[in-house]
Amino acid sequence: MTDQTSASATPATGSAPADSNQGLDPVTGIQRDSVIDVQLPQPRTVSRIQGKRIRIPAGAPTGVHEHNGPVVGVVLEGTAVMQIVGQEPVTIETGEPFYEPEGVRMLRFDAGPDGLVFLGFFPVGPGEEPTLTPLD
User: Which residues contact 69 (CB under 8 A, 6 or more apart)?
Assistant: First the structure.
């Protein structure tokens, strides 16, 4: 997986900012590794984060769309092919994170040949619900 947006998103293979709560704790044996670190292009008021398990059958296209807020997630099963307008498609494998920026035209977030199951997390403001708007 590569950096997926013009906004800053550091994937698991990138270098995240220094984090004192990172790596192996020699006392407990607990390992903590950053897998994604997203710098939002604009600050946003968040009053809650809604998480959804989403299943897309093999070959089913999501179509061109945009979200009313940022989306951060991780692929649980299968693969996704994600493409942001102006960028090349990126394949997201099982276990890899992804980021879809707020208000940006997503050309695709399609399931691979074995289908797709992912967790999507949607930060929303007061009185707001996460929305996916289909576009032509």
Answer: 44, 102, 122, 123, 124, 125, 128, 130
